[in-house]
Structure formats: structure tokens, C-alpha cells
Amino acid sequence: MKVLTNESLSSYTTFCMGGICKNMYFPQNKQELIQLALEKKDCRFIGGGSNLLINDSKEFDNVICLRELSQELDISDDGFVTASASVRLQKLINFINKNGMGGIEYLFSVPGLVGGAIYMNAGRGKAFNCTIADHIVSVEVLCLEDTKFGGRGEVAELSKEDCCFGYRNSIFHSNSFLILSAKFRFPEMSAEESAKRRKERLDLCREKQDNLKPNFGSVFCEANPKLMKLVRKLQLGDKDGVHFSGKTNNWLLNSKGKKSEKGSFDKALKLIEKVKMLHKLFRKPCKPEVIIWK
Ligand SMILES: Cc1cc2nc3c(=O)[nH]c(=O)nc-3n(C[C@H](O)[C@H](O)[C@H](O)COP(=O)(O)OP(=O)(O)OC[C@H]3O[C@@H](n4cnc5c(N)ncnc54)[C@H](O)[C@@H]3O)c2cc1C
């Protein structure tokens, strides 16, 4: 197994920010992953790193990166699709589309892995009410502590209901489980329709999303649209460091360039706190979506 020491986590997040990891592990298969996850008690997991804001002045002991894990995709005779946690979302979508199924083409632009998407219950905006959970039958997990589904070290199968999916939320936020794979049921879809949906999604993202600078998608899963519009107009933050996008509501951007020119974790956190305060002032609910490793 590949192990890197004193590796900068900034290379593993789409926001290009993160401190040093003393030991970064890259398991190649499920057995290695399970053994490692049980051995390193307080380890953290990183998939696509596309929903993470990581402290850049902290040292992390053990991080397990799921990107080099074997990517398994399978379809049963009765149409159930199984994908391992390390499969890229685009790969899953291409696979189901090739097999005459579809339904999650809106995730074609999302730079995450299946495990991270299930953890986050990734989907379209709240108004559309579509998430990956719509198609989940069950999720295979390793219990990292004693749970009602199994004791520490046991592999368990959680039904969709067991996963307690909510808007960008799931039982996995308890961090009691490592997601290993998931079983899905997708509706039938013609190749023309799925290709059209993929293209529509990419066109929409090109038009609406501020992808020129490092980001992690939406900062908040609950926020007031009017206040977020104000934040966008003001482009709160430091233009040469961390700042809110002037193009996409609810997106925080980091600056490209040398490390010294980029924004810091402290500044990112302060901006998030500022927006939370603004909501408090107007008595509006506000909840971060991004997972923060303090
Ligand atoms: C340009 C851009 C566009 C985006 N668009 C969308 C969008 O349209 N909709 C949307 O919902 N999100 C969007 N996001 C956010 C993000 O891509 C999703 O939340 C994605 O599902 C995160 O997956 P990941 O593999 O990158 O997870 P990571 O960021 O690597 O991890 C997120 C959390 O999941 C945990 N985790 C990851 N894998 C596992 C596992 N196997 N077992 C247990 N825990 C695990 C991590 O420890 C971490 O706590 C976007 C982000 C970007 C950068």
C-alpha cells in the first residue's frame, strides 16, 4: 500500500487548502481499507475532497485517501447496480447510461466519489428535491464503533431508511461508519435522453458556476437567498485570498497561485462566521454544508 508522509492536504481538496498529514494512506482494495480503518482509530477519510475545508495550520495524524481504491461497478440480472465508494460520480453515470438507465445526470458536474456523495446526500438545489438517495437501495458499511447495526469492525448493510437521508445530510455524519459500497436501482432511460441531460447539466454549470478559482461548491445548505445575493454582490472577503464569488451565490473561492498568495483557513472560517452572524441579525436560519476539519 502506498503511504506518504508529511503530505500537504491542500493537494487533495478542490479548495486547494489544508494542513500537513503525517501519514496519508492509499489502500488499493477493500481488505486493505478495512484493516487500516480499524487499525488507525482516529483516522479521517477523504474521497474527491470536493466538500472539505481543512485547517491549513494544523497537522493531521492519519488520513485515508479513497482515490486509489479499486473501483468496482456491477449490474445484476435484475437491474440492481452496485458501486464501490471509490467510484467517481461521472464513471457511475456513464455506466448506468450505457446500460439504459439514468436519473442522476445532474451530478455529472460534481467532482466527488460515490462514498462522499452518499455521506453528503449530494443532489440538485433544494427546490428540485432530487438527491442520490432517491436511487439507493442499501449501503454497505464498516462499523467504526458499536452501533445498532453491528459492533465495531463488523460489515453491515444499511437500508435506505436506516441511512436517515435529509437535505445534504445522512446518518454518516455521525462518523460511526466507513461507506464501502452501495446498491442502487435506477429508472430506465434512453441513451439520447441521458446524453441530453448530461449536456444540459454541463452547459448550465459553464454558464452559472464560478469554476475559475478553487471552491467546494455551496458553503451553506440552508441560507436566505436575499442575504446570499447581498453577500455575492459585495463579494465579501479578500479578492487575492478567500472571498465570496461575484458570479455564483453561496460559493466561496480561494485564490490560485503561490501558497503565500492564497487565502488562509482562518480567513475562510471568519467569512463563514460573518455570514452566519448576518443571518442571525435578520433572524434567518443558516447552516453550513461544507465539512470543516478544524
Ligand atoms: C465545482 C463543484 C460543484 C459541486 N456541485 C455540487 C452539486 O451540484 N450538488 C451537491 O450536492 N454537491 C456539490 N458539490 C459538493 C461536493 O462535490 C459533494 O458534496 C460531493 O458529494 C462530495 O464528495 P467527495 O467524494 O468529494 O467527498 P469529500 O469532500 O472527500 O468528503 C466529504 C465528507 O465525506 C466523508 N467521506 C467521504 N467518503 C467517505 C466514505 N467512503 N465513508 C465515510 N465517509 C466518507 C469525508 O470524510 C468528509 O467528511 C460541488 C463541489 C464542487 C467543487
Word description of this protein:
With 294 residues, the protein is an alpha+beta fold. The chain has three domains: 2-65, 2-Layer Sandwich (Uridine Diphospho-n-acetylenolpyruvylglucosamine Reductase, domain 2), CATH 3.30.43.10; 73-193, Uridine Diphospho-n-acetylenolpyruvylglucosamine Reductase, domain 3 (2-Layer Sandwich); 210-293, Alpha-Beta Complex (Uridine Diphospho-n-acetylenolpyruvylglucosamine Reductase, domain 1). The protein is built from six helices and 15 strands. The protein is globular, with a radius of gyration of 19 Å. It starts with a strand and ends with a strand. Residues 14, 44-52, 66, 85, 109-113, 115-117, 119-120, 122-123, 172, 178-179, 211, 215-217, 291 line the site of flavin-adenine dinucleotide. Flavin-adenine dinucleotide (FAD) binds next to strand 3, helix 3 and strand 10.
The averaged pLDDT comes out at: 96
- The total of beta strands comes to 15
- Share of helix among residues? 10-25%
The Cα radius of gyration reads 19 Å
Individual helix count: 6
The proportion of residues in beta strands is: 15-25%
- CATH-scheme architecture of the largest domain: 2-Layer Sandwich
How far apart, in Å, are the first and last alpha carbons? 28 Å
CATH class descriptor of the largest domain: Alpha Beta
What small molecules are bound in this structure? flavin-adenine dinucleotide
The number of distinct structural domains comes to 3
Shape: globular
Q: Unreliable segments (pLDDT under 50, ≥5 consecutive)?
A: none
Main beta-sheet strand count, sense and barrel state: 5 strands, antiparallel
Q: Which strand order does the major sheet show? A: 6-7-10-8-9
CATH topology-level name of the largest domain: Uridine Diphospho-n-acetylenolpyruvylglucosamine Reductase, domain 3
The structural class is alpha+beta
Order of helices and strands: EEHEEEEEHHEEEHEHEEHEE
